[in-house]
Design a protein that fits this description.
Layout: E1 2-3, H1 14-26, H2 36-56, E2 63-66, H3 69-83, E3 89-93, H4 98-107, E4 112-115, H5 125-134, E5 138-142, H6 156-166, E6 169-173, E7 191-195, E8 206-210, H7 233-253, H8 257-270, E9 275-276, E10 287-291, H9 297-306, E11 309-310, H10 326-330, H11 335-338, E12 341-345, H12 352-373
Parallel strand pairs: 1-11, 3-4, 3-5, 5-6, 6-7
Antiparallel strand pairs: 2-8, 7-8, 9-10, 10-12
Length: about 375
Amino acid sequence: MAYFDNNATTRPNPEVQEAFEGALRESWSNPSSPYHSGAEVRVRLDRARENVARTLQVGEEQVAFTSGATEANNAVLAHAANFFDSSARVVVSSIEHPSVLEPADHWFSGRALTVPVEPTGVVDTNRLRALLEEVPEVRLVSLMAANNETGVLQPWGETTSLCRERGIHFHCDATQWVGKFPSSGFSACSSFSASAHKFGGPKGVGILVSELANPFILGGNQENGRRSGTENYPVIEATSVACEVIRSHLPEFSDRSSWRDSFEERMLFDFPGLQILGKEVPRLWNTSMFLLPDYENLRYVGKLDKLGFEVSTGSACSIGKDESPSVSLAMGFSTEQSQRLIRMSSYAEETEDDWMSLATAFCDARDELDEESSGSPVISL
């Protein structure tokens, strides 16, 4: 089975699995306990934190481990709501992950402003700049580094500067960036989040790097007093190992965009009328999302699954919701068009041959759908 849904989650690499199992088996003591075995786990946990901080190019004292990027994003918005006065406003982009959009609407009901995106999928920085000038009450801006559906890179560096100049807290959801590109530059953000299972690490552990000193979960003194609760050392150690593995792969990753580009060129040739989202702007090297000229995406997903290829219709967090994906609507697509969008996302294990085989599988799937639509008595099961 060729797996092309890595923006949803990646396969934990063997070293990560081994590190997790070893820590679970041998280092199960509470790292806050005063005796030797607990202190030993504390030393290992601190070493893991140092390694993660080195990968992210930040100070270890800024790193707090959470249950995922969703918790990290929620923590920033909830903290802002409690820290800033009642007139404070926040700005988010229209293509943010639900873990930003929903808490922004919850904690800043009626005070959350949305900045639109261009048809290319890139946030409109002119509109953002105008908002910051027009609304002096803005205290926080949240913008992702790269979109999880289209792969389009966002102007987070420019936004960092805009916010710094005005004394505004800038939060960046870097979940799709970390593990695919070097993390240099994120240290200039007021805060940013990442998730281990997006780069070969385990699920259930996220990273919040922040200037905030205030606690966001009360009841203990863990994570430098910011997030109470016994640390999950096994997944933290596995995350540290994932960081080590990914550092060795980063130099080769960017060249793999040519594999994706060749796949897209073939798809454009074989599927007249196909539209690739964000093709004209910089994207993640691993991501391709396009609008098919015919048939609903779920029909293609089912056919491709039987042919040995796993692809997605978009964000896993949006699957099962009644409404159309917010990203496609923000980019100007209709509800009907949203039902013809498919996303492919590779990672470390997928090869150039896998990409080209996927293009062939799309053609085979379309042939089956054409046959079914023609009223043929042959039924595909």
